[in-house]
């Protein structure tokens, strides 16, 4: 029997099938192995796919053998996870567009992958002020010393300051790249790349030999946001990729924090926009640690279901649709959008069911349209 990860890899090669659509395919058929043999008519029934893409799938799979392709791919890309692998990062399973293939180099950590060790993203401009650099190093150091793993993108400026501060403090850091893992970008970060590989982890959704491309970096930012329990924007002008990461964080129901500064400082105007939009201000390290420490801890022993609602035993005599909604809500905060995606029920119906489940004492509503199951 062909292993499921071979199908994830094969599906990632089909033109026009991105992470969001692939997630729908997996939800529709249950496994990508099942979807690989589906008829054109069955494929066309997947939301957003249609007849044209169904034909592309049929044509591609006629010349692509998943098992043989996996074997060949491993020769140049030996280390990667797919959502079917147990070590695939747990928090990425919550987002609408989890990478079908996630390549890695360095030191893996199962507690990070399970979401037990909290990952905090630090992002910002490539051209920070001295104030931005100083605070980034200060925050990166204190997070490392208190057991947080720092996630960033290994770009110039804020990213590299965050990585270096964490490494110098003896902590772990993850770098999410917008290239293949065999390409160091920017090239002058070779030493930083090697230090991260030795003390942390390098990640990318792009296979070996993928060169820098302008479109890769916004996509990379969604992975930084998805991996992180919170995003810290240290300094960002009004047109900054860091604001894209912050937007992804909001979409994924992650907390966003930012460093305030004067409106006269161009590099800080994006941060002021974030504060105006509801982001928390970073005033003191200890206050930030208290806020980050209040993030609910995840259960190491519980493995998240990838794309299907978790099964639950009804505590009361609940209607089937109530059981479905309750099963889609985890003991950690779950966004309303994720409940809709995982149940397939209309949003209006889900809202009414959630209200009744709250009244029954089975779930609680949290800020930001998030819900949490009560033990």
Automatic annotation (TrEMBL):
<dbReference type="InterPro" id="IPR003488">
    <property type="entry name" value="DprA"/>
</dbReference>
<dbReference type="GO" id="GO:0009294">
    <property type="term" value="P:DNA-mediated transformation"/>
</dbReference>
<dbReference type="InterPro" id="IPR036388">
    <property type="entry name" value="WH-like_DNA-bd_sf"/>
</dbReference>
<dbReference type="InterPro" id="IPR010994">
    <property type="entry name" value="RuvA_2-like"/>
</dbReference>
<protein>
    <submittedName>
        <fullName>DNA protecting protein DprA</fullName>
    </submittedName>
</protein>
<comment type="similarity">
    <text>Belongs to the DprA/Smf family.</text>
</comment>
<feature type="domain" description="DprA winged helix">
    <location>
        <begin position="310"/>
        <end position="369"/>
    </location>
</feature>
<dbReference type="Pfam" id="PF02481">
    <property type="entry name" value="DNA_processg_A"/>
</dbReference>
<feature type="domain" description="Smf/DprA SLOG">
    <location>
        <begin position="80"/>
        <end position="292"/>
    </location>
</feature>
<dbReference type="Pfam" id="PF17782">
    <property type="entry name" value="WHD_DprA"/>
</dbReference>
<dbReference type="InterPro" id="IPR057666">
    <property type="entry name" value="DrpA_SLOG"/>
</dbReference>
<dbReference type="InterPro" id="IPR041614">
    <property type="entry name" value="DprA_WH"/>
</dbReference>
